[in-house]
Design brief:
This protein is mostly beta strands. The protein is 5% helix and 46% strand. It is built from one helix and 13 strands; from the N terminus they run βββββββαββββββ. A hairpin with an 8-residue loop joins strand 9 and strand 10. It starts with 9 loop residues before the first strand and ends with a strand.
Length: 192
């Protein structure tokens, strides 16, 4: 990660180097959103719970796929103390034949895994000079895809605050999926 103040980005919130009792405030400084001191983190526009509106993956050749269908469901939460979690799922999932939470046939377990994705961890935000985007780094502590546990996943975010509700667009870096590099585009609506 580049140092704070580097030409390519500026860290505007990094929870793991911040006392959770510290506070932040909105800043009118160019290329910065929040700085230490002032209002509580609750004022940060990312803070809160978001519901998935749409999720599509775009390949360089123009192909668009919907990983869990056009009606995928999900929730994303950013907390004031620097934690985040996301859950993505197919809208309708088949229940197991058994009510035992440790039960399920091999086929049921595979179907459940193929229709559900989640992770949680710490996060930090960096402004990107010259753009409206915010680089969002998720430091993953646990993930349903074990290969991501202990890694950093970068997202590029744009947020729009409006009278019809707040929207958050997250775009991934290219991710290898089904033999192709794809970029996910997820649109979230703030829950009130």
């Amino acid at each position: 990660m580049p140092p704070v103040g580097a030409a390519c980005s500026r860290t505007i919130f990094k929870a793991d180097n911040m006392n959770p009792w510290d506070s932040v405030k909105l800043s009118n400084m160019p290329n910065a959103i929040f700085t230490a001191g002032g209002e509580s983190m609750a004022a940060h526009p990312f803070i809160g719970t978001w519901q998935l509106v749409s999720w599509e993956r775009r390949a360089p050749d123009g192909e668009v796929t919907y990983p869990y269908g056009g009606d995928a469901a999900g929730f994303l939460t950013y907390t004031a103390d620097g934690y985040m979690f996301v859950v993505l799922t197919k809208a309708s999932r088949s229940p197991f034949a058994s009510a035992d939470v440790s039960g399920g046939s091999a086929a049921e377990k595979v179907a459940a895994m193929e229709s559900y994705f989640s992770y949680c961890g710490r996060y930090e935000l960096q402004s990107l000079p010259g753009t409206a985007e915010i680089k969002t780094i998720h430091h993953i502590l646990a993930c349903s895809f074990p290969n991501w546990t202990g890694t950093d996943q970068v997202r590029f975010a744009e947020i729009s605050l409006g009278y019809q509700g707040d929207r958050l667009l997250l775009r991934t870096q290219p991710i290898f999926e089904n033999g192709k590099l794809r970029i996910s585009h997820l649109i979230w609506q703030r829950l009130r």
